[in-house]
Known about the structure:
Layout: H1 17-25, H2 30-35, H3 42-46, H4 50-62, H5 87-95, H6 100-103, H7 114-123
Amino acid sequence: xxxxxxxxxxxxxxxxxxxxxxxxxxxxxxxxxxxxxxxxxxxxxxxxxxxxxxxxxxxxxxxxxxxxxxxxxxxxxxxxxxxxxxxxxxxxxxxxxxxxxxxxxxxxxxxxxxxxxxxxxxxxxxxxxxxxxxxxxxxxxxx
Length: 143
């Protein structure tokens, strides 16, 4: 997992305990957790996507009781394997992954930060995310 400049090499302000518990349940190493801040992003900073991102969301929902209704995975994470129009295209993309950049427009993915995950753990709903058609809620009035 890579960490971008958004994260602190020496983190003087550790993540909330409940958020660290969630990350550990997802299999995130203590070393990575210690370098995260509330602004660390799952995909953009930690390179979490595809099936691993699905696993993180499953833990969030099933073990921590967070409502994911209305969440659009493809707005936040790329798929593990590119979906080609044919078996030949899929095979070509798997054998030469860099070729995808030549003919597909890169998609920008909205971030999910540790702060958003912490709020979801507190409010039991993943909401207020920058997406079209997703759940929007007033986080101040939620319990």
